[in-house]
Design brief:
3 helices
């Protein structure tokens, strides 16, 4: 659901479920941070060309 939330907006109920889960799960919170960082890094690589 983390990756899906980065691809597009989730419905309200799913957004709330994910937010709650992330508030109690350090592993998924770290995964989201890593995915966000990697997506930004890849996006910036494309700008350098």
């Amino acid at each position: 659901m983390v990756a899906e939330s980065l691809d597009h907006d989730l419905p309200l109920v799913e957004r709330l479920q994910l937010r709650f889960h992330l508030s109690i799960c350090d592993n998924c919170t770290n995964f989201k941070k890593q995915m966000t960082f990697l997506r930004g890094a890849v996006r910036n690589l494309g700008k350098g060309r």
